[in-house]
Amino acid sequence: MRYLPLTPDDREAMLAAIGAKSIDDLFIDVPQAARRDGFVDLPRVAGELEVERALSAMAGKNATASTVPFFCGAGAYKHHIPATVDHVIQRSEFLTSYTPYQPEIAQGTLQYLYEFQTQVANLTGMEVANASLYDGSTAMAEGVLMATRVTRRNKAVISGGVHPHYVKATETVVHAVGVETEALTAAVDAEDAVIAAIDKDTACVVVQTPNVFGTATDVTKIAEAAHAAGALLIVVVTEAVSMGLLKSPGEMGADIVAAEGQSIGNALNFGGPYIGLFATREKLLRQTPGRYCGETVDAEGKRGFVLTLSTREQHIRRDKATSNICTNSGLCCLAFSIHMSLLGETGLRQLALLNHEKAVATRDALAAIPGVEILTPRFFNEFAVKLPRNAADVVQTMADNGVLCGVPYSRLNPDAGLDDVLLVAATETTLDADIKILAGALAKVLAA
Amino acid sequence: MSTMNTVGRPTAPNEGLDANYKPATLTGGRGLLQDEPLIFEGEGWGKTGVDLPKPATNGSDLGDLVRKDPIGLPGLSEPEAMRHYVRLSQKNHAIDLAVYPLGSCTMKHNPRLNEKMARLPGFSDIHPLQPQSTVQGALELMDQLAHWLTTLTGMPAVALSPKAGAHGELCGLMAIRAAHQAKGEHEQRRKVLVPTSAHGTNPATAAFVGYSVVEVAQTDDGRVDVADLASKLGPDVAAIMVTNPNTCGLFERDILEISRLTHEAGAYFYCDGANFNAIVGRVRPGDLGVDAMHINLHKTFSTPHGGGGPGAGPVVLSEALAPFAPAPWVVNTGDGYKLVEREEDEAEQAFGRLCAFQGQMGMYVRALSYMMSHGSDGLRQVAEDAVLNANYIKARLEDLMSVAFPEGPCMHEALFDDEWLKGTDITTLDFAKAMIDEGFHPMTMYFPLVVHGAMLIEPTETESKAELDRFIEAMRLLAGAAKAGDVERFKGAPFHAPLRRLDETRAARSPRLRWAAPEGSNRAG
Amino acid sequence: MKFTKDHEWVRLDGDVATVGISKHAADALGDVVFVETPEAGKTVSVGDSFAVVESVKAASDVYAPIAGEVIEGNAVLATAPETVNADAEGEGWFAKIKVSDASVLDGLMDRAAYDAYLTTL
């Protein structure tokens, strides 16, 4: 058993030191009825080679994004990750350390968290950012709960452009504590519709840009309307790279930004682990969820960093905490921060432009196909098209032909009557040849 | 024989010099430990460490949606980035360096096979919304993981998607809430009973879901006071949340009685599975009457802690709660695997959804890789060695330090209080900081709250006897120094860490949570 | 000056009560890093949580020892929470309350009784 250092002799010597006759003596507090003799009914110990074979066989059954023409987005994006990122996050000192509760021997983690918080605050255009939450969808749920605490109101108005899974994940949690939600009808250009739904009970308005249909919106007017009514504006971003090209949520008046940071430094991973970015205004700090790293000095006056403001958190406040969250997405923060440091502002803007250009090229290729209607007028790297047929069926047929052409909107929300809508994303990894294959195959499938 | 050039190469150190002369360095660096500025304080403005094709356009088609102001993001070339992060890394303690005996955290070895497997493109380079026909292997892996977890716990179902232990607690309580709703009892059952020794997430989660928290007393031997529990159970109680083995490192002897009383009162038994490592392969929570229990894959099943996350907290569920599990989950249809993503058909009672996608797939791969490696025999040995190591530490230190609950064996962690430090003017915190100087990460301190000056030591099964002996020897020397009145060693510690003690009051009084450009600079931020 | 078992103090001048936390409480909390005082106009009843005081590792609710309408919260504490440590029973006051019923004070401890109470903890 390669992960267990004790030898039979060690065990015997240790039992003797303890004064126990056998290991069973140490389990005497377990009620007799609950003790299990022998092994549970599962396979026995296996060597590296065997495990690697078994898992590789499963991995081999999946079509990977890098090996086929690939246009899936809808909240998770295929980007190139520099080799440095994965090397650094596998360093023992980052991979195998715990939450930095002993700051004297955790300055590595603390400093990158401080840098991460600064990067996220600047990227989102906000005053402060925390050290991350689980993912974008849980960040949105936390944002809504925070808004009810700040405004002492009880209703969230959610735009029809917000990712349906984000809406569902938020409603699941906030409904449990009696917070009402008004989720508006799904529509490609839906964001401005929230303005009419704001009333005196509205704690917050939640909009997404670019939204799930890809539509990029200047939400300044929405911010003004929300603030005039005493409500907060929560801006959801599922594609973090977009903020390298588009106006930041902060610039447009957001009070809370709940974003998915996967696009920077983190692989698709079939949905997780990802990284929830959470940023807000300084005056709302005490009502925020999650952990913060702050600057201070040590006993000799040297600059250092510590976890701070922890009286908001569960280990101190217990049932009065702002959230029950106990972890952050530590290693994913590190991956984000390294990738962002490598990009720098120059690289990020370039990357964002390349994404946009690939998406425009993809749109142009699809627009030429008879029966395909482009729905999204202004987008970053993703747009919606209306097909003359059920989009889920088309996606399946295309997949059978080796092309992952996007996500049918109906998979996220089957009740919206948008069965013919396909969400198509392109990134810097998209090849011109992929676009040609996509357009050719789609034309063929639709003509059939 | 000819004489080699020996200029500048004396063979004995410091010949003729004062061995005690140790000047401070001129730059602030200390040998291998470099002082490393923030990336924002370097020369990275305008620089980039990636080579991308030059964009052909400038985004003008997006008009006034385009961001114009500086963002405030410095860049580093690849060598600079590598140095920056490697220098930072050297200021961290790590499992791979030495014992990391944080009680209730289970800091065990993280096998690198797990990392290799999680990075197979077939797992890492697949999209959560690809057609299911193109991810059958991924769904198979989730199904396999579910099989291992349900078999090891003796529970019929598992919700994989919770993203961490606290998220798992949320999942379990939401399922309990849904079950009471289905029975029409939700309005009357508004309380959750939580022992005083519970981890902070338990009461925080109960409150997060809208329950009021009622504390249950603890007995003098560190366990749930069953009489107090019984007196508080009733038709207004939705659930109890009990950690077993508990946060004092002890098995709840009356666990069967606790679950019987709970069920008799019409409530559900939520078990905090943080300490499953102590019993895996030997005790099945299903046999204890548990209705829901989260499993921290980053504790028991060795996925890396990563400096505070990401974790993963699948929740096993009893027959009574299984129908309410959140979407999505995997079904083996016989001719393939299906991901059930919506509350319809077989999932119509699902309480909703906890996150955007399928949960922490990267952690599923690592955990399954670990479980397959150990097998059922290895996992049983894991629990035994974890318990043996903790009891060994307890036995070797109990003559010098005061064990909080001395009667009987402990499970996977040994709990001491600060009684033995009385009169020394040294606190648990001081003692912990002195451990840093000796090269060890401190144990968990001041938790559980029910033990004064608590020191909770969890060695895990992946420490060798030699390493444990080294740790024990260091603890004995420190304890001896404490009792001998060597107060300064403790009060000022650590002396040999990258930094001395940090001023947390200053950090909290005027929070500085981000780098800001110095006054007068034209940098963004 | 009168004290409660929860370590609040109250001092009456005419119909205005000044309230805060005792020196003992401030010492026990350690370095105070944050205080949330009530806004003027808020009505409080005896036992209501009307303020929050935090040190680095602890957070406590502060309960109103007397009922009435808050006239003023101590604005100094927002920027200088350390005042509570420096002068808990003077400059570190939390709020001034216009008292509706002063008889509650009769049930509270005087300094000697409070000191005696502290020795029992």
Q: What Rg of chain B, in angstroms, do the CA atoms define?
A: 27 Å
Amino-to-carboxy terminus distance of chain B = 67 Å
Query: What's the overall average pLDDT of chain B, rounded?
Result: 94
Structural class of chain C: alpha+beta
Strand order of the largest sheet of chain B: 1-7-6-5-4-2-3
What is the CATH architecture descriptor of chain C? Beta Barrel
Highest-level CATH class of chain C: Mainly Beta
Number of domains of chain B: 2
Question: Rg of chain C from C-alpha positions?
Answer: 13 Å
Measured by DSSP, the beta-strand proportion of chain B falls in 5-15%
Q: Can you tell me the CATH architecture of the largest domain in chain B?
A: 3-Layer(aba) Sandwich
Q: How are the strands ordered across the major sheet of chain C?
A: 1-2-3-9-8-5
Give the beta-strand count of chain C.
9
Bin the strand percentage of chain C.
35-45%
Using the alpha-carbon principal axes, give the shape of chain B: globular
**Domain unit count of chain C:** 1
The share of residues in helices of chain B is 25-40%
**Uncertain residue ranges of chain C:** none
**Would you identify the regions of chain B where 5 or more consecutive residues have pLDDT less than 50?**
none
Molecular structure report:
With 448 residues, chain A is α/β, with parallel strands linked by helices. Chain A has 14 helices and 13 strands. The longest helix of chain A has 38 residues. Chain B is an alpha/beta fold. Chain B has 2 domains: 257 residues, 3-Layer(aba) Sandwich (Aspartate Aminotransferase, domain 2), CATH 3.40.640.10; 124 residues, Aspartate Aminotransferase, domain 1, CATH 3.90.1150. Chain B has 13 helices and 12 strands. The longest helix of chain B has 37 residues. The radius of gyration of chain B is 27 Å and the shape is globular. The termini of chain B are far apart. The mean pLDDT of chain B is 94. Chain C has 121 residues and is α+β, with helices and mostly antiparallel strands. Chain C has a single domain, classed as RNA polymerase II/Efflux pump adaptor protein, barrel-sandwich hybrid domain (OB fold (Dihydrolipoamide Acetyltransferase, E2P)), CATH 2.40.50.100. Helices cover 20% and strands 36% of the residues of chain C. Chain C has a 6-stranded antiparallel β-sheet with strand order 1-2-3-9-8-5. A 3-stranded antiparallel β-sheet of chain C has the order 4-6-7. The two termini of chain C are 21 Å apart. Classes of the chains: A alpha/beta (448), B alpha/beta (525), C alpha+beta (121). Chains in contact: A-B, A-C, B-C. At the A-B interface, helix 1, helix 2, helix 3, helix 4 and helix 5 of A face helix 1, helix 2, helix 3, helix 4 and helix 5 of B.
